[in-house]
UniProtKB/TrEMBL annotation:
Keyword terms of this UniProt record: NAD, Oxidoreductase
Source species, domain of life: Bacteria
One Pfam family named in its UniProt record: GFO_IDH_MocA_C3
Gene Ontology molecular-function annotations: nucleotide binding; oxidoreductase activity
Protein name: Oxidoreductase
Source species of the chain: Microbacterium album
Domain GFO/IDH/MocA-like oxidoreductase residue range list: 142-289
Limits of the Gfo/Idh/MocA-like oxidoreductase N-terminal domain: 6-133
Length: 390
């Protein structure tokens, strides 16, 4: 018997929109038991070339300019929202109003208030959701969570996560929307530290209090040329410049609900690290380390002999969906395929399996508390909205 179809509408055909599309299609191959598979119906993007890519390359039946034509169509069952941050709130609420489950990228809103609006509205309509916290889907992270939650490391004493990148380290990089507060909200906090907050909460437990500092090291950037949208875009040499309105760097001390202490650090202007995202967890009986740059490995210290490296294998999370045995690596796109499969399963089973809008709201409350702490130079409590990942 052929599987049913879930008809997909996409909003924004940038890098992440293209990745969502590939992930939907790959989910059929890696999760063949899903009761429904994705059918790519319509993609919205104001750029004509992006619309052509959606139909000619990705396989959507139609490309349109206005996102409303996606969320309001009767032949669209779910919506992927991959637009810039400042459009997330408007588009997500429109999808919710239309009764469409949605898969949205992080940060879900430019603030905890916007994220809360989306999470509460989805809950009120009884809609499942998915949020782009893809790093939690690494099989080594699944094993790390299992070790922590089953007590294999003993009582957790402290956690460290570091998300260092260089994508904005060039002072000639254009002042695109990512550097403007009304467009992006926060800077590297929403872009990268939202992942760090989610990893800490998913693996160890909720963050309840923070003390933080932030800094903007590159305070001016050249204005973008026509068509520049990516944070890799360069401005015109010698042209006009504008002020960067959000942070390049942040360092945070945090207390977790279970009594553990955490240190979180993030930068978008670090020269050297390209995508150096890591998690370390220390307990009274052992510790573990994971790095995205070696995402198929987990370092585990569960004896006096120190760390040993364990390769992800068939008993680690969803590893066996992609590779037959340890030593053959998974990649970034595979993590999004797992996310797509979780979203499709959430829709067909009508129960939340993917990281949810509630998880995104929880991460956003951490980001808002960090910004408040950095401004006031005091400890700030993180409001409890949920227990993410449970």
């Amino acid at each position: 018997m052929a599987a049913e179809r879930i008809r997909v509408g996409l909003v924004s055909v940038g890098w992440m929109g293209r990745l969502h599309s590939r992930a939907y299609l790959a989910a059929r191959h890696h999760f063949p038991e899903l009761p429904a598979h994705a059918e790519l119906v319509v993609a919205a993007d104001p750029d004509e070339g992006s619309r052509a890519h959606a139909t000619d390359v990705l396989g959507y039946r139609e490309g349109v300019a206005d996102y409303r034509e996606v969320v309001e169509r009767d032949d669209v069952d779910v919506v992927s929202i991959c637009s810039p941050n400042f459009l997330h709130h408007e588009i997500a609420l429109a999808a919710i109003e239309a009764g469409k489950p949605f898969w949205i990228e992080k940060p879900m809103g430019r603030s905890a208030a916007e994220s809360g609006d989306i999470a509460r509205a989805a809950a009120a309509r009884g809609l499942v959701s998915a949020v782009g916290f893809n790093y939690r889907h690494a099989p080594a992270i699944a094993r790390a969570r299992h070790l922590v939650r089953t007590g294999a490391l003993g009582e957790i004493t402290n956690v460290r996560t570091s998300l260092l990148a260089d994508y904005s380290s060039d002072p000639a990089g254009a002042l695109t929307w990512r550097f403007l507060r009304d467009r992006a909200g926060s800077g590297v906090l929403g872009d990268l530290l939202s992942h760090g907050a989610d990893l800490v909460q998913h693996v160890v437990g909720p963050i309840r209090e923070v003390s933080a500092l932030t800094e903007t090291f590159i305070r001016e950037r050249p204005l973008p040329t026509a068509g520049a949208a990516s944070h890799f875009s360069r401005g015109a040499e010698g042209g006009p410049r504008g002020l960067v309105e959000n942070e390049d760097y942040a360092a945070i001390l945090a207390r977790l609900e279970n009594g553990a202490v955490a240190v979180l650090e993030t930068s978008r202007i670090a020269i050297g690290p390209r995508a150096e995202y890591g998690l370390e967890v220390y307990g009274t009986r052992g510790s573990l380390r994971w790095s995205f740059q070696r995402l198929n490995e987990l370092q585990l210290a569960d004896s006096p002999d120190g760390y040993r490296t364990i390769m992800a294998g068939p008993d680690f999370g969803e590893f066996s969906r992609f590779q037959p045995g340890a030593g053959t690596s998974m990649g970034f796109d595979d993590l999004k395929t797992i996310e797509a499969a979780l979203f499709l399963a959430s829709v067909t089973e009508d129960r939340q399996l993917a990281p949810s809008a509630l998880d995104a709201w929880s991460a956003a409350t951490v980001i808002d508390a960090v910004l408040e702490s950095a401004a006031s130079r005091t400890w700030v409590a993180v409001p409890e909205v949920a227990h993410p990942g449970t």
